[in-house]
Structure formats: C-alpha cells, structure tokens
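Incident review: delayed structure delivery

Summary: a single-chain prediction request sat in the queue longer than the usual turnaround. Root cause was a stuck worker, restarted by the on-call engineer. No data loss occurred. The affected request and its eventual output are reproduced below so the record is complete for anyone auditing the incident later.

Affected input:
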Amino acid sequence: MPPVDVLVRPAAPPDRVIRYGDHPEQVIDVRSVTDDPDAPVVILLHGGFWLARYDRLHTRPMADELARHGYVVCTPEYRRLGQPGGGHPGTFDDVAAAVDLILGAPPATGAVVLVGHSAGGQLALWAAMRGRLPAGSRWHVDPPNHGTVSGVVALAAVSDLARAIEVGIGRGICADLLGGRMELLAETDPARLLPFGPGVAVLVHGTEDAIVPIEISRGFAVRDKSVRRVEAVGAGHFDLIDPLSVAWPAVLRAIRSVAAPGLGRSTHRGDADHRGDADPAPDGPPAS
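Output delivered after worker restart:
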C-alpha cells in the first residue's frame, strides 16, 4: 500500500464542527464515540508543510481510530500558505485561537494532549510552549491562567525550523512560512523556545522518513534532555498517521503515555526507544 494512500483514504465525517472565527478555514472537527465525561482529549494538528493544498481531511482516518480508542478528538483547520492570511502571522493566530478555544471549554475533562504531524508537529510544540514567548508577544499566554496541556506527541515534526531551513527541508517552504524573515524564528521555532513545557514532549519519528529526516528530532532532543524520543524502525513519513501501518501501535502508546503517564512503561528522559514497539501496555486510554 503506497504511503500516500492515507492522504486520500475515505473516512467518516466529524460528529460536529465548531467555528472559532469568521474565515471558512477557522473550524474544528470533533469526533467521539465515548460517553465518558472524563475521557482524554486529543487536539490533532495536521501537516502538509503549511500549504493550502493539504487540509485536515487527510487526518480523518487517524482521528477516527483515536476516537475508537476512547479519545475525544478535536482537529482544527487553519489558514495556510497560498490562502489569504496564511503563513506568518495568520497560521499562528489560527492555531493559537483554536487551541485556546478548546482548552477554555474542553469537550471532556480528561487529560489534553496536543498531537501534530510534520508541520503540524511544529505547530503543536509551538502551541504548548507559548508561555515561553516574551510577554509582549501576540501569542504569549500566562501558563497559570491558561488551559492545562498534559503534553505533546510530535510525529515526524519539523521541530527545529532554523535547521529545517538550513538543510532545505520542503524545498524552501519552511522559509516561506515566515515570509523569508529569519528574525521571526525567535517566536515561531520550537527549538528556540526550549526547554519544553508544560507537561512532557514525546517525539515519534520513522527511521526511513525521506521528507523530514529523523536527525531533526534527534537534534531537538539533544537540546532538551527532558524530551522523549521513539524511533519507529522502518517507518516512513506518512506511516505515523496511518492506522493500518506497523508504526501505528507505537503512536498510540506515545499518546497514551502523555494522556495517562502512570500506566505506561517508564522511559529514560532523552533516550530513544529504538524499537518503537517496546511498550507492553494495551493501546488507547484506560477503560472506564
């Protein structure tokens, strides 16, 4: 099965859609199959190099499967490159607004985990670390007064924007996100905002990723030893969002380790689980 199959695979529509602004892209899909008011919540940020041609629809199979495992899944859309307002600052404005709306009125009272793939991984890490932005930043939040995030699971994330620009990931698209203004990295690059907080960060990356090389995640974790890594052996870029891939159980375990940290296998901080399949705990959140 080609790895891009998941980008076009049919999936059910969301249970409901929430608007967080007037622009057509400012919406959040919500999926849930549980009646548990204490269910954990996943805020799922899609990737696609922040480009308009890639939207949240390609994460529907992943969102459906996470919902089946007991999570309430919120998938925000956001303005992207090629659309009016996309890129800096609109993309960041939208992600901040969507995450704040969910945290301000979460659809369930369980742990909230930010999950993002590729460019969405960059946005998920950034959204969780906004408390580290300067007080004068338009995106700064005061953590004590902000909604609680248990942590981030970043999948094949563009976690170091400066390094991604330097090595040419995305053929220049990473620089396009900032309109070529490298001074904006100080407020937009997760690697510039380390050490990570709040909660815990888990970076899951396939060893055979030809789009965002695994060295990006390795370098991010070297900068902050509190960051955990899972290396999915043999997995490519899209395997991490594909419920039919052999890498998918490792993704589920990573999310569970953040949503219910007391139930998973303990992992030495800064170390990689090079097998990507070493957690013997069952997938998904604990049964109620």
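Verification: Strands lie at 16-19, 27-31, 41-45, 72-76, 112-117, 151-155, 200-206, 228-232, 272-273.
Action items: add queue-age alerting; document worker restart procedure.
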